[in-house]
Structure formats: structure tokens, C-alpha cells
Amino acid sequence: MATINTRKLAVVTGASSGIGFHLAQECARNGFDLIICAEDDAIHGAATELVADGTLVEPVQADLSTPEGVERLVTAVKASLRPVDAILLNAGIGAAGRFLETSIVDDLRQISLNCAAVVYLAKMLVPDMVARKQGRVLITASIASTTPVPYNAVYGATKAFDLSFAEALRYELKDTGVTVTALQPGPTDTAFFARARMEDTKVATDKKDDPADVAAAGFAAMMKGEDSVIAASLKTKLMGAANEVLPETTKAGIQARYHEPGSGKRD
Fold this sequence. Notes:
Layout: E1 8-13, H1 18-29, E2 32-38, H2 42-50, E3 57-61, H3 67-79, E4 86-89, H4 104-132, E5 135-140, H5 153-172, E6 178-185, H6 192-195, H7 202-205, H8 211-224, E7 228-231, H9 234-243, H10 248-259
């Protein structure tokens, strides 16, 4: 990647598909060069799609659920010799099912990617932003961050972590010129449900938001320096509003009906 460039630089994780790809696309359309990261080799195809109108794109294939993967991405960012203007920490996974039946390996991997990698990357990259007194951070949480999620208990807890971390970090950085925004999507039409083995659930079979719309709302909120954004449909916004007022037990019951294995096959 060139070391002399007037364009800004954005780092986007989980960018091979879904919301992450569209976040990267929003960055490219708005004058950012990109360092994009994902575990799968589709990240290289995503980079090819994103190269347009003078956009420089560097793909990094790395498993961010491991310290080695995070270090690989950090090394690539440092090697660019360019300041980072925006960090979009979007990579995340789910592994649904009854907690007593899910794999401990899958449970811990969710925590590693959805939580530990977010903290690790923020710790490594945000200080340089603060030193420059400018920057934007976007952390993808979820509408699930505001409710218990039976049959997706670990995933829901990791997203609650992401939301809390984003809001606390935002407060700490309030006078530094660096903003932190939490993106809270609802059910979105991505490969998430298949990867999380949720194809037979009601949440997977119901109508879902367009990832491009979710990304556009998230990018706009990040650039405005907003605290958080629930994206993108009215249905998702209403879910978010309801989660602010309903008791936890009520919310848990609602989520259980959507996330219980086999719920998508019922009338």
C-alpha cells in the first residue's frame, strides 16, 4: 500500500461479506482507502470488488479469534505507515442452541472474536487516534445487546459486552477528538444464521433487514459521531424501543420464541 496518500484510511473487520462488506463499501464510496480483514479467503474477492475510483484496498486474511490473527492485522496496519482515521470492528460469530448442548469450543470462540478481539484491536489502534486528536470508531453490537437471548445465550452476552464497552470507551474519549459509535442491527439477511446453525429458527425464517441498509445507517452514525444507532428497519427500531422498557423475563420469553431450535417450522 502506498505510504503517501491524501485519502483517509479505514480498517474494517469481518469485511468479506454481509454488513462488514457493505461497511467497507460505504467507506470506499466516501473517500477512504481500506485495510479489510476476515478469516475466510473470500476477503480477497471482496477486495477486488472494492477497488474502484482510486480506492486502495489491502486484504488481510486472519482469524481474529486468536491473538496471532489479531497481531497479523495490527502488523498490516502498522506496516501501511499511514494514520488510521476510522476503525470499524464488525467481525462476529454466533453458535446457537441450548447452552447445555453447545460446544464449549464454539462458546469460547464467540467470546474470543466478539469480545476479546474488539478489546485487543481497540487497545492497539485507538491510542494513535487519540494522539492525533481525531478518529472514528464503530463497534458492531446488536439489538440482542439489550435483551437476554435464550438458545443464543453466549452470543447475546457478547453483544451486551460490545455495547457496554463501546459506550464506556466513548465516555472516556469524549474530550479527545475520537468518537465511538455502537451499531445495533436487528436480524439481517446475511450468512450469520447459516453459520450459527440457526436455519430452523423463527428469527432466521422471518423477514430480515438488508445488510446494505444497516451498513449505510452505521456508517452515517459513525461519521456524525453519534453514540449508537439501531439499524435499519422500523421493525428493528421498534424492537429496540421495546427492549428499553420491557422486563428482562418478558424479553427473554419473546426472544426464546424466535431463537428456539425448530421454531421456524411452526405455524
